[in-house]
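FAQ: What does a multi-protein file look like?

Like this. Sequence, then tokens, then the next protein.
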Amino acid sequence: TKIIADSITSGAIANTPYAHIKLSSNQNTNNASNTKVTLDSVELDSASAYNTTSKKYIIPSDGKYFITAQIDGFGSQGSYDFTIAKLRINGSEVAQSRTLHRSNDGEEATENLTLIKDLNQNDEIELYGQCEGGASASYFRGDSTLSYTYLNIFKLIT
């Protein structure tokens, strides 16, 4: 127990790296088109691993990672049809969440993704989405204070 206690107090055991990156203002989309979410507000990034130009989180070290993401899709005038959130690793889609409500049009839908992945250093994480606003424009909702559309990631202690 002495070794474990020393490791904890010295900071040797930690869920790092970790990050929370969000969309700070609404991002317009073309209706129903697959669109990269341009997350632009780095709230936390312990390893400085988020590339603000490419909008990709670059895995800093091998390991198992816990990833959550959310897209808040919005359209106005009660003609909103669907929201789809997609997580890509190295350009390939690995998770998807969707809400379809074409027979009961609303104006907003929030999609969440949660998964654990075994990742390698330099793997690239990206968030994509689609939303359909019918006759009105659709967008991913963002805000300077609240986290409506975001990506969270942290390395698991194993």
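And here is the next protein:
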Amino acid sequence: MTADFAHDTLAGRTVFGAGSRHGVAAEVDALGATRVLVIASRDEDAIAAEVTAQLGDRVVGRFRDVVQHVPNAKAAAAVELAASCDADAVLTIGGGSATGFGKVVCLDSDAELAFVCIPTTYAGSEMTTIWGRTDGDHKQTGKNPVVKPDTVIYDPDLTASLPARIAGPSGMNALAHCVEALYGPGANPVVALSALEGIRVLNHSLPIVCDGAADASARAVARSDVLFGAHLAGVALAAAGTALHHKTCHVLGGMFDLNHGDMNAVVLGHALAYNAPAIPSVMQQIATALGVGADAAPKQLIELARMIGAPSSLEAIGMPEDGIEDAARRVVAEARANVRPPELDGITAMLADAFAGRDPR
């Protein structure tokens, strides 16, 4: 019997398919936008040039200073540029960092801006109302409907040049969205459909995407599947919210400026193992989607990260060992609403295992 639940469906348009970026001008026109600020890092110059050529004189500005975690000072510069250009729309091209800057511009601008997003990684945040920004060593997050892109254009061709060292951890971020959506604060049967299919697709196809020796046609199919999995992950995240895993990654990212995708690859199995005693039925669902026994799900996530060449320890990505205790205290404070209440000793042990690259307990 289906349990009672509440579910909010977010508005927005999704365009998915190889070559779909070529329709960006029509999508901008459909939103009635005439003055577009493009947000894309220098690494995305080639794609940005191709896209902006379609828009012509509708592009009134370009913000390139995109970095992870959206530091307040740089976010303020992007907001100021949007105002000085009298922009009526934001177009972001890139991963979660570019999307994050677009969200903060929409959040902080006095004008109501249209928002078009072209993801080039598997971040998934483009499907959510969640925003984040960093002030010093503290990362703040919140929800607001104005930051949800009006139109998201998924073009698998844009991920063809994504190196495995970025694609793998980015895909683990998407996988983490799916996993946490099954026990996050807004978890429900509708969300579970997207989340479980996302887990299945990402677990199967992400290793193919990251395997440089795989057949080219197989990798092309896998890229499309992983991007679809990332879309499902974003849909699930938008409705269900986050739990211990992402709270931990936000704390560590703010404190130590660690790469977000790499953190996801390292922490996911450990966070799931911590929560396992409180969610036995969910553990069985996750394990089935991963194709393993229920007790093996956390270890499988660690093995998947290793299989795709992602980092296997927090030490390897730059976290200092003497930061574990302080980080654990912050995680306990930030993740109070987690499905299994965070206890300082347990969280400290979880971070110590993740730091050393031990198997999850």
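Q: Is there any per-entry metadata?
A: Some entries carry free-text notes. For the entry above: The beta strands are 13-16, 36-39, 59-63, 89-94, 114-119, 130-135, 138-143, 151-154.
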